Amino acid sequence: MHIRTRDASGPRMGKTRRLPCHTPTWHAVHHGSTRLSTSTCCTHTLPSLELRAKGPTTGLQVRAPATSPWCATTATFVFAGHGSGGAVVFGVVDELLAKTGVRAEDVGVVIANSSLYSPTPSFVSLIVNRYRLRHDVVSHNLSGMGCSAGIIAIDLAKHLLQEFWTMHWRAQHGICDDGSGAPGHVRAGGEHGEHHPQRLPRQQPPHAGTVRTHRGASDRSYGCVTQEEDDAGHVGVSLSKELMSVAGEALRTNITTLGPLVLPLSEQLRFLATVVLKRVFRADVKPHIPDFTLALDHFCIHAGGRGVLDELERSLKLSAWHMEPSRMTLYRFGNTSSSSLWYELAYCEAKGRIKKGDRVWQIAFGSGFKCNSAVWKALRAVDAVAVGDAGSPWAQDVDVLPVHVPKVVPIDDDQASYKTAA
């Protein structure tokens, strides 16, 4: 859920306020606004929760854990029905408003994200009704977007904030639009002067750089992840054998767009050279895989499974240190869908890895098939001790992690008895 608040006192550079668990660090300020965020996931049945609870180092966070410094809170929700889901949502929003000092009537934009569960009325309507939000609140409810929905919500919030900021700036400087699509006019001192794009402010509010790739035009990509009902009447998600191939194609398309935005010139020239040799001179050369570690310091890859992480580690030529946040998130919390990126970022913070100026690349895959990226830049260093004291989900485990996770492990007696009983 992304909540944007508008300051009743008028336009000003709003300060970053203390959000649930700890103070945001990364995208510190938006002009006259504060953005709060949470991702939700609903992929667990009650039997699966009972099984997860038996493990010594696995569990489901029902309360809102600490998250990335640009996200107020990320929570994995369990929905046995609209009522219990609402109870969890209300608890998160109550804590959010209390710790930030934001009034419900000041909320101007709400974005809710639920990977699979889509009730009627929606979660956004549930929040609007509970907190009696304004009648003109801009609300968006994202459902069915899969494990990449968190970045989609970030991208939507980014564009909404840019739009509101531009509209506010134009209104503040007396620039109007006559509705014809032509440039408006500046009215000052009774004179009319044409408005040129050069007069718009050059410095925009800070935000994440996002790149979204959608391969849904391909039937093979579209059908590789689907929600279906099996012969026993149980609804679940079906994954095709072509998933890894489809994910690789989507990733290549995504990094082709992302690369020129973040990579140093030397890497771009190497990549361009291989493309020219292959396409123009028909040379038999291997495609150059850019070294993203030259431009990015930390990697948060959706913890969808060991196979996904192994493939991306090989494709992007990442080290075990770079893959550690994703692998430990999968080990500790399992596949939490779109919220896994924020657990991984919280891991980097808890380990004290985030320094001023560091850049983090979040990569998420989702049904459709989608591959979405977000790149963040740290505005200041993150104090690992302060993050732990603020309630990080890694506070109890950070000193013993990472641990070696074998590829094959025996099934213990408790899990075996559970499967036999089921």
Describe the structure.
With 422 residues, the chain is an alpha+beta fold. It folds into two domains: 2-168, Peroxisomal Thiolase, Chain A, domain 1 (3-Layer(aba) Sandwich), CATH 3.40.47; 209-421, Thiolase/Chalcone synthase (Peroxisomal Thiolase, Chain A, domain 1, 3-Layer(aba) Sandwich), CATH 3.40.47. It contains twelve helices and twelve strands. It has a four-stranded mixed sheet, sandwiched between helices. Strands 7-12-11-10 form a four-stranded mixed sheet, sandwiched between helices. The radius of gyration is 23 Å and the shape is globular.
The level-1 CATH class of the largest domain? Alpha Beta
**Largest sheet, strands/sense/barrel:** 4 strands, mixed
Number of strands: 12
Count structural domains. Answer: 2
The rough form would be described as: globular
Strand fraction equals: 15-25%
CATH topology of the largest domain: Peroxisomal Thiolase, Chain A, domain 1
Arithmetic mean of pLDDT: 74
Helicity level = 25-40%
Oligomer: single chain
Going by helix content, strand content and strand pairing, the class is alpha+beta
N-to-C series of helices and strands: EEHHEHEHEEEHEEHHEHHHEEHH
CATH architecture of the largest domain: 3-Layer(aba) Sandwich
The main sheet orders its strands as 2-1-3-4
Alpha carbon gyration radius: 23 Å
* CATH homologous superfamily label of the largest domain: Thiolase/Chalcone synthase
Structure annotation, total helices? 12
EC number: 2.3.1.199
Biased composition (Basic and acidic residues): 188-197
Domain FAE: 87-162, 210-279
Pfam family, one: FAE1_CUT1_RppA
